[in-house]
Amino acid sequence: MLYSSRIVGVPIIPPDSAPLSTAAPAQTRFAIPPLIKRNMTLFALAQSFTGAGMQFAYGFGPLMVLALTGSAGLAGLSVALIGFSRFLISYPIGQVTDRFGRKPGILMGLTIALGGALTLGASMAYMSFAIFVVGMLIFGMGMNAAQQLRVAATDMFPPSYRAQALGYMSLGALLGLGTSPVVVSFAERIAAAIGQIELAVPWFLLPALIVPGMMLIVFVRPDPREIGMNLAHYYPGYVPPPPRSKADGSKADFSVMDMLKNRHMALALLSNSAATGNMSLVMVLTSLVLHQHGHSLSAIALSHMFHSAGMFAFTVPLGWLADRVGRARVMYPGVAVALIGASMVTLTDGSYLLVTLGTFLVGLGWAGANVASTAMIADEYQTVERGRAIGINESFSGGTSMAMALTTGPLIEWSGLPATGWTAVILAALPFLLLGFYRLRR
């Protein structure tokens, strides 16, 4: 990947301008080594194989809950379980990869996800809600642990390429978008032939995609953590930034509280969480709204495919933009676009085209906010602490996702879709309120 081997330098940021975490990184001419291109290609292809699983979880999870419990009020539980699993696993897996390398953590996560997929298939085969809860937690922890793929991408590039590298990493998921509807269509035919519940069969087919993805990751060499610790070896002329230090000049250790006290990091965390929360809300609503209007599983999968296209199809230009004009100038518009898309899904009459367009915009907004905020955090922290820092970002977004998913079902039952739409508006406004507070205080 990253076929452009050089970029044109831009003027150095003046001393009194915004810090590196918010401005565009100062750029120099670097050739992308063939080894880095090879590793990125392997990671992107692995993502294309494994990404279909999360489409199943978001697209079919609410329908599985509805089939097992008969309650629309609990429909958000599946997305909440995914968010909770992300909240639980993201920081611990960051500790693992910071210490032992990115590959062991990613492979461990995909192995866990493999077991979770089979458990979810069994939950529908036996119509067991308890097995479903266990399976979704296991699957969610495994797939979210595998998101250290994104940390690995940031390890292998200097700051002037970092957001674009995240975009190329997400592009791998785009390659796998066509896989999900094909697998679902095949699963529907198998289910009809063998008399099995159609929501069960896709999960039993998922290991055929996860295992090849794991094999591709095995061929990545050396571990991206080792590359990140020796960037100057791969990019001659690159000068790494000095380690973060305390007020007394001593080296700073990673601390969650210090991260929260840094206003740029706090804004990055909140922006990503707001965009992810909107996405979780829309993932619940899209399946329910389309299902209630009589659309098939294949049609629902197609709508979610457009959402995923919004998430991944434009990540490369968004990353390119964040590398050149600054992280914040991509991050905040991303949150705003996610807000507009969520409003379209929740405040319209269930039109398939409008719902699908809205869910696409939510994905697009999330892409901008996520790529820019992740790059902002990666710029701030050294390789040996980056897994934990980005893990905290994932944990915060996972907690928000869980809260929004659990709120959506009761809001629909008690107050209807407009109340859910206003919840999305309030959530998306929070980063802008915090930004205004910081500016007023300054």
Would you spell out the secondary-structure blueprint of this structure?
Layout: H1 34-50, H2 52-69, H3 77-100, H4 102-125, H5 129-145, H6 148-155, H7 159-175, H8 179-194, H9 201-205, H10 207-218, H11 224-228, H12 231-234, H13 256-261, H14 263-292, H15 297-312, H16 315-325, H17 328-347, H18 352-380, H19 383-415, H20 417-441
Helix pairs in contact: 1-7, 1-10, 2-3, 2-5, 2-14, 2-15, 3-4, 3-5, 3-19, 4-5, 4-6, 4-10, 6-7, 7-15, 7-16, 7-18, 8-15, 14-15, 14-17, 14-18, 14-19, 14-20, 15-18, 16-17, 16-18, 17-18, 17-20, 19-20
Characterize this entry briefly:
The protein is an all-alpha fold. It has helices at residues 34-50, 52-69, 77-100, 102-125, 129-145, 148-155, 159-175, 179-194, 201-205, 207-218, 224-228, 231-234, 256-261, 263-292, 297-312, 315-325, 328-347, 352-380, 383-415, 417-441.
Walkthrough of the structure:
This protein has 442 residues and is mostly helical. The chain has one domain: Up-down Bundle (Growth Hormone, Chain: A), CATH 1.20.1250. 76% of the residues lie in helices and 0% in strands. It has 20 helices and no strands. The N terminus is likely disordered.
Q: Beta-strand percentage?
A: under 5%
Number of strands: 0
The unreliable regions are 1-20
Q: Major β-sheet, in short?
A: none
**At the third CATH level, what is the topology name?**
Growth Hormone, Chain: A
Alpha-carbon distance between the termini?
42 Å
Q: What is the CATH domain class?
A: Mainly Alpha
Measured as a percent range, the helix fraction is over 70%
Shape estimate: globular
Over the alpha carbons, how many angstroms does the gyration radius reach? Answer: 21 Å
CATH-level-4 superfamily name? MFS general substrate transporter like domains
The count of helical stretches stands at 20
Structural class by sheet pairing and helices? mainly alpha
